[in-house]
Amino acid sequence: MKKFLAIAMTAVMVLGVAGCSSSKTEEPKEEEQTEATEGETAEGEVLVMGCSADFPPFESYADDATTIEGFDVDMMNEICSRIGMTLEIKDMNFDSVVAAVQTGKIDVGVSGITITEERKESVNFSDSYFVAAQSILVTKDSPITGYQDLLDGDYTAGVQLGTTGDIMASEKLGDRVSQYEKYGDALAALLADKVDCMILDTGVAEAFAAANDLVVLDETFGTEEDKEYYGIAVAKENTELLDKINAAIADMKAEGFFDELNTKYAG
User: Fold this and answer.
1) Helix ranges (DSSP H) in the chain
2) Interior angle at CA 192, CA 112 and CA 184, nearest 5
3) Could you read off the pLDDT of 212-234 as tens digits, one per residue?
4) CB 31 within 8 A of CB 91
5) Of the four, 128, 149, 153, 184, which is 20 to 30 A from 198 by CA?
6) Alpha carbon distances (Å) from 236 to 98, 178, 185, 242
7) What pLDDT is attached to residue 263?
8) Which positions ≥6 away from 188 have C-beta within 8 Å?
9) Which DSSP letter does residue 183 get?
Protein backbone atom coordinates (compact mmCIF):
# COMPACT_ATOMS: atom_id res chain seq x y z
CA MET A 1 0.00 0.00 0.00
CA LYS A 2 1.28 3.42 -0.84
CA LYS A 3 1.65 5.50 2.25
CA PHE A 4 0.02 8.88 2.30
CA LEU A 5 2.10 11.94 2.93
CA ALA A 6 1.08 13.90 5.96
CA ILE A 7 -1.55 16.38 4.86
CA ALA A 8 -2.34 19.17 7.28
CA MET A 9 -6.10 19.21 7.18
CA THR A 10 -6.60 21.98 9.72
CA ALA A 11 -10.37 21.64 9.82
CA VAL A 12 -10.05 18.30 11.59
CA MET A 13 -7.02 18.92 13.75
CA VAL A 14 -6.99 19.96 17.40
CA LEU A 15 -7.36 23.72 17.84
CA GLY A 16 -9.18 23.60 14.55
CA VAL A 17 -11.07 20.34 14.79
CA ALA A 18 -14.31 19.84 12.91
CA GLY A 19 -14.86 16.70 14.38
CA CYS A 20 -14.96 6.59 11.32
CA SER A 21 -19.78 1.65 12.78
CA SER A 22 -21.79 0.74 15.73
CA SER A 23 -25.34 -0.46 16.08
CA LYS A 24 -26.48 2.96 17.19
CA THR A 25 -28.21 4.86 14.39
CA GLU A 26 -28.58 8.60 14.30
CA GLU A 27 -29.86 11.12 11.82
CA PRO A 28 -27.31 12.83 9.57
CA LYS A 29 -26.08 16.15 10.92
CA GLU A 30 -27.36 19.39 9.51
CA GLU A 31 -24.04 20.20 7.87
CA GLU A 32 -23.93 19.08 4.27
CA GLN A 33 -22.21 20.02 1.08
CA THR A 34 -24.65 20.21 -1.80
CA GLU A 35 -23.34 20.11 -5.32
CA ALA A 36 -26.76 19.79 -6.92
CA THR A 37 -30.44 20.31 -6.19
CA GLU A 38 -32.69 17.43 -5.19
CA GLY A 39 -34.08 15.18 -7.91
CA GLU A 40 -33.14 15.61 -11.54
CA THR A 41 -30.53 18.09 -12.77
CA ALA A 42 -29.13 18.96 -16.17
CA GLU A 43 -26.37 16.44 -15.50
CA GLY A 44 -28.73 13.73 -14.30
CA GLU A 45 -30.06 12.31 -11.07
CA VAL A 46 -28.45 13.32 -7.78
CA LEU A 47 -26.35 10.70 -5.98
CA VAL A 48 -26.27 11.34 -2.22
CA MET A 49 -23.01 10.27 -0.58
CA GLY A 50 -22.68 10.02 3.20
CA CYS A 51 -19.33 10.38 4.90
CA SER A 52 -17.68 11.43 8.14
CA ALA A 53 -15.65 14.44 7.05
CA ASP A 54 -12.92 14.04 9.67
CA PHE A 55 -10.82 11.51 7.79
CA PRO A 56 -8.05 13.22 5.83
CA PRO A 57 -6.87 12.70 3.17
CA PHE A 58 -10.02 10.78 2.18
CA GLU A 59 -12.61 13.34 3.26
CA SER A 60 -12.28 16.47 5.37
CA TYR A 61 -13.27 20.12 5.30
CA ALA A 62 -11.19 22.53 3.23
CA ASP A 63 -9.86 25.76 4.66
CA ASP A 64 -13.19 27.45 3.96
CA ALA A 65 -14.76 25.10 6.56
CA THR A 66 -17.61 24.46 4.10
CA THR A 67 -16.28 22.43 1.19
CA ILE A 68 -15.61 18.72 1.73
CA GLU A 69 -12.60 17.46 -0.23
CA GLY A 70 -10.28 14.48 -0.48
CA PHE A 71 -9.51 11.16 -2.19
CA ASP A 72 -13.04 9.76 -1.81
CA VAL A 73 -14.64 12.99 -3.04
CA ASP A 74 -12.47 13.08 -6.18
CA MET A 75 -13.26 9.41 -6.80
CA MET A 76 -17.01 9.86 -6.40
CA ASN A 77 -17.11 12.97 -8.61
CA GLU A 78 -15.39 10.93 -11.33
CA ILE A 79 -17.76 7.99 -10.86
CA CYS A 80 -20.77 10.30 -11.04
CA SER A 81 -19.50 11.91 -14.23
CA ARG A 82 -19.19 8.44 -15.78
CA ILE A 83 -22.64 7.20 -14.76
CA GLY A 84 -24.48 10.45 -15.52
CA MET A 85 -25.25 11.59 -11.99
CA THR A 86 -24.44 14.64 -9.85
CA LEU A 87 -22.83 14.27 -6.45
CA GLU A 88 -24.28 15.59 -3.20
CA ILE A 89 -22.32 15.05 0.04
CA LYS A 90 -23.75 14.75 3.54
CA ASP A 91 -21.52 14.84 6.60
CA MET A 92 -22.53 12.54 9.48
CA ASN A 93 -21.00 10.48 12.27
CA PHE A 94 -19.18 7.46 10.90
CA ASP A 95 -21.20 5.00 12.95
CA SER A 96 -24.34 6.26 11.16
CA VAL A 97 -23.13 5.88 7.57
CA VAL A 98 -23.85 2.18 6.92
CA ALA A 99 -27.24 2.39 8.64
CA ALA A 100 -28.12 5.48 6.56
CA VAL A 101 -27.37 3.51 3.39
CA GLN A 102 -29.41 0.55 4.62
CA THR A 103 -32.45 2.72 5.42
CA GLY A 104 -32.27 4.80 2.24
CA LYS A 105 -31.32 8.12 3.83
CA ILE A 106 -28.31 8.24 1.50
CA ASP A 107 -27.48 6.42 -1.72
CA VAL A 108 -23.89 5.43 -0.96
CA GLY A 109 -21.54 5.42 2.01
CA VAL A 110 -18.00 6.49 1.10
CA SER A 111 -15.81 7.25 4.09
CA GLY A 112 -12.80 4.96 4.00
CA ILE A 113 -15.19 2.12 4.93
CA THR A 114 -13.49 -1.23 5.36
CA ILE A 115 -15.36 -4.15 3.80
CA THR A 116 -16.22 -6.60 6.59
CA GLU A 117 -18.50 -9.62 6.82
CA GLU A 118 -20.54 -7.91 9.52
CA ARG A 119 -21.17 -4.81 7.41
CA LYS A 120 -22.00 -6.99 4.38
CA GLU A 121 -24.98 -8.29 6.33
CA SER A 122 -26.49 -4.79 6.11
CA VAL A 123 -25.28 -3.43 2.76
CA ASN A 124 -23.53 -4.46 -0.42
CA PHE A 125 -20.04 -3.20 -1.22
CA SER A 126 -18.42 -2.20 -4.45
CA ASP A 127 -15.17 -3.75 -5.57
CA SER A 128 -12.34 -2.55 -3.36
CA TYR A 129 -10.66 0.68 -4.42
CA PHE A 130 -7.98 1.03 -1.70
CA VAL A 131 -5.92 -1.20 0.60
CA ALA A 132 -5.28 0.17 4.10
CA ALA A 133 -3.76 -0.80 7.43
CA GLN A 134 -4.10 0.39 11.02
CA SER A 135 -1.24 2.45 12.43
CA ILE A 136 -0.12 3.38 15.94
CA LEU A 137 0.12 7.13 16.56
CA VAL A 138 2.15 8.27 19.58
CA THR A 139 3.83 11.33 21.05
CA LYS A 140 7.52 11.83 20.32
CA ASP A 141 8.57 10.82 23.84
CA SER A 142 6.39 7.69 23.93
CA PRO A 143 7.91 4.47 25.31
CA ILE A 144 5.82 2.52 22.80
CA THR A 145 8.11 1.42 19.98
CA GLY A 146 6.02 -1.22 18.20
CA TYR A 147 2.96 -3.42 18.07
CA GLN A 148 4.27 -5.97 20.57
CA ASP A 149 5.06 -3.24 23.12
CA LEU A 150 1.45 -2.18 22.97
CA LEU A 151 0.18 -5.73 23.37
CA ASP A 152 2.49 -6.65 26.24
CA GLY A 153 2.30 -3.44 28.24
CA ASP A 154 -0.52 -1.71 30.07
CA TYR A 155 -0.73 1.18 27.60
CA THR A 156 -4.07 2.68 26.65
CA ALA A 157 -5.33 3.48 23.15
CA GLY A 158 -7.83 6.00 21.81
CA VAL A 159 -10.04 5.07 18.84
CA GLN A 160 -13.02 6.41 16.94
CA LEU A 161 -16.19 4.53 17.72
CA GLY A 162 -17.21 1.95 15.14
CA THR A 163 -14.04 2.03 13.07
CA THR A 164 -11.97 -1.03 12.28
CA GLY A 165 -9.34 0.51 14.54
CA ASP A 166 -11.91 0.34 17.33
CA ILE A 167 -12.82 -3.25 16.46
CA MET A 168 -9.22 -4.46 16.24
CA ALA A 169 -7.97 -2.57 19.29
CA SER A 170 -10.92 -3.67 21.44
CA GLU A 171 -10.30 -7.29 20.44
CA LYS A 172 -6.57 -7.18 21.17
CA LEU A 173 -6.38 -4.64 24.04
CA GLY A 174 -9.71 -5.12 25.79
CA ASP A 175 -10.59 -2.51 28.42
CA ARG A 176 -7.45 -0.49 27.66
CA VAL A 177 -9.33 1.10 24.74
CA SER A 178 -11.14 4.44 25.02
CA GLN A 179 -13.78 5.10 22.35
CA TYR A 180 -14.57 8.57 21.03
CA GLU A 181 -17.30 9.80 18.68
CA LYS A 182 -14.82 11.82 16.61
CA TYR A 183 -11.21 11.31 15.60
CA GLY A 184 -10.57 14.86 16.80
CA ASP A 185 -11.66 13.90 20.31
CA ALA A 186 -9.33 10.90 20.35
CA LEU A 187 -6.52 13.11 19.08
CA ALA A 188 -7.18 15.66 21.81
CA ALA A 189 -7.02 12.87 24.39
CA LEU A 190 -3.63 11.75 23.08
CA LEU A 191 -2.26 15.29 23.13
CA ALA A 192 -3.54 15.72 26.69
CA ASP A 193 -1.91 12.42 27.80
CA LYS A 194 -5.29 10.87 28.57
CA VAL A 195 -4.39 7.90 26.32
CA ASP A 196 -0.97 6.58 25.34
CA CYS A 197 -1.61 6.18 21.62
CA MET A 198 -4.22 6.18 18.88
CA ILE A 199 -5.11 3.28 16.57
CA LEU A 200 -6.32 4.53 13.18
CA ASP A 201 -5.90 4.22 9.42
CA THR A 202 -2.37 4.93 8.21
CA GLY A 203 -3.16 7.86 5.91
CA VAL A 204 -5.07 9.69 8.62
CA ALA A 205 -2.40 8.90 11.22
CA GLU A 206 0.24 10.48 9.01
CA ALA A 207 -1.87 13.61 8.50
CA PHE A 208 -2.42 13.98 12.24
CA ALA A 209 1.28 13.36 12.94
CA ALA A 210 2.40 16.10 10.56
CA ALA A 211 -0.03 18.67 11.95
CA ASN A 212 0.56 17.92 15.64
CA ASP A 213 4.27 16.96 15.91
CA LEU A 214 3.44 13.30 16.59
CA VAL A 215 4.95 10.02 15.38
CA VAL A 216 3.48 7.14 13.37
CA LEU A 217 5.31 3.95 14.32
CA ASP A 218 6.91 2.02 11.46
CA GLU A 219 5.23 -1.16 12.64
CA THR A 220 1.48 -1.25 11.97
CA PHE A 221 -1.16 -2.49 14.40
CA GLY A 222 -1.86 -6.12 13.60
CA THR A 223 -0.39 -8.54 11.09
CA GLU A 224 -0.31 -8.93 7.32
CA GLU A 225 -3.68 -10.67 7.52
CA ASP A 226 -5.17 -7.54 9.11
CA LYS A 227 -4.95 -5.44 5.94
CA GLU A 228 -8.20 -3.69 5.08
CA TYR A 229 -9.99 -3.11 1.80
CA TYR A 230 -12.11 0.02 1.34
CA GLY A 231 -15.38 -0.21 -0.59
CA ILE A 232 -18.42 1.90 -1.45
CA ALA A 233 -21.50 0.87 0.55
CA VAL A 234 -24.73 0.53 -1.47
CA ALA A 235 -28.18 -0.65 -0.36
CA LYS A 236 -28.72 -4.36 -1.03
CA GLU A 237 -31.73 -3.74 -3.25
CA ASN A 238 -29.92 -1.16 -5.39
CA THR A 239 -28.06 -3.65 -7.58
CA GLU A 240 -28.35 -1.47 -10.70
CA LEU A 241 -26.40 1.34 -9.03
CA LEU A 242 -23.84 -1.12 -7.67
CA ASP A 243 -23.24 -2.56 -11.15
CA LYS A 244 -22.73 0.93 -12.59
CA ILE A 245 -20.28 1.87 -9.82
CA ASN A 246 -18.28 -1.34 -10.25
CA ALA A 247 -18.07 -0.82 -14.00
CA ALA A 248 -16.83 2.73 -13.45
CA ILE A 249 -14.24 1.61 -10.88
CA ALA A 250 -12.95 -1.09 -13.26
CA ASP A 251 -12.55 1.45 -16.07
CA MET A 252 -10.90 3.97 -13.73
CA LYS A 253 -8.39 1.35 -12.57
CA ALA A 254 -7.59 0.34 -16.15
CA GLU A 255 -7.15 3.97 -17.21
CA GLY A 256 -4.85 4.83 -14.30
CA PHE A 257 -7.24 7.16 -12.48
CA PHE A 258 -6.43 5.69 -9.07
CA ASP A 259 -2.72 6.00 -9.81
CA GLU A 260 -3.34 9.70 -10.38
CA LEU A 261 -5.21 9.95 -7.08
CA ASN A 262 -2.36 8.26 -5.27
CA THR A 263 0.06 10.70 -6.86
CA LYS A 264 -2.12 13.61 -5.76
CA TYR A 265 -2.60 12.46 -2.19
CA ALA A 266 0.39 10.19 -1.62
CA GLY A 267 4.13 10.04 -1.95
Assistant:
1) 71-83, 94-102, 117-120, 147-152, 164-173, 183-191, 202-212, 239-254, 257-265
2) 25
3) 999 999 999 988 788 899 999 99
4) yes
5) 128
6) 11, 33, 33, 9
7) 86
8) 14, 17
9) H
The pTM of this model reads: 0.70
- Cα(160)–Cα(182) distance, integer angstroms: 6
Sign of CA dihedral 185, 191, 192, 195: positive
Decide the pairing of beta strands 86-91 and 44-51: parallel
β-bridge partners, 157: 177, 197
Q: How is the beta sheet containing 68-69 ordered, strand by strand?
A: 54-55, 59-61, 68-69
Taking only the tens place, the pLDDT of each residue in 11-60 is 333 333 333 433 333 444 444 454 443 444 344 699 999 999 999 899 99
Over the stretch 149-172, which tens digit does the pLDDT of each residue have?
Answer: 999 999 999 999 999 899 999 999
CA gap 202, 234 in Å, rounded: 25
Specify the 3-state DSSP secondary structure of 50.
Answer: strand
Q: Within 10 Å of residue 231's Cβ, how many Cβ atoms?
A: 25
Please enumerate in sequence order all residues whose Cβ is within 8 A of that of 67, keeping only pairs 6 or more positions apart, or say none. 33, 61
Select from 91, 73, 100 the least CA-distant residue to 19. 91
